[in-house]
Amino acid sequence: xxxxxxxxxxxxxxxxxxxxxxxxxxxxxxxxxxxxxxxxxxxxxxxxxxxxxxxxxxxxxxxxxxxxxxxxxxxxxxxxxxxxxxxxxxxxxxxxxxxxxxxxxxxxxxxxxxxxxxxxxxxxxxxxxxxxxxxx
Length: 136
Description:
The protein is 18% helix and 29% strand. It is α+β, with helices and mostly antiparallel strands.
């Protein structure tokens, strides 16, 4: 964060040793971007981004609007080098539980990359489509 403190999400991850990873398709990318803005610990990112919280087996809530949610156990949190701009710790986590919406599955039961239309984020401003391009 700008004031040399850690984001509340990282604190919760460290305290509970649990995290939920929600994938982001194009249709919720603006909401995701607004949830990534720095908020105080007393502010609900779910409310700010108009996301619907879903109960999990683990401590953190899942995002109902996400078609794939991975409930994870944190294995290790490594600090990033302080010389790197926008330094962020690296969190290693195992995902023993995954929830997948049938709306993104192919007829064979696999995730269809065209149906899921994933977005990626690197840093606070860069958003990129992960849509598969085919030359066939």
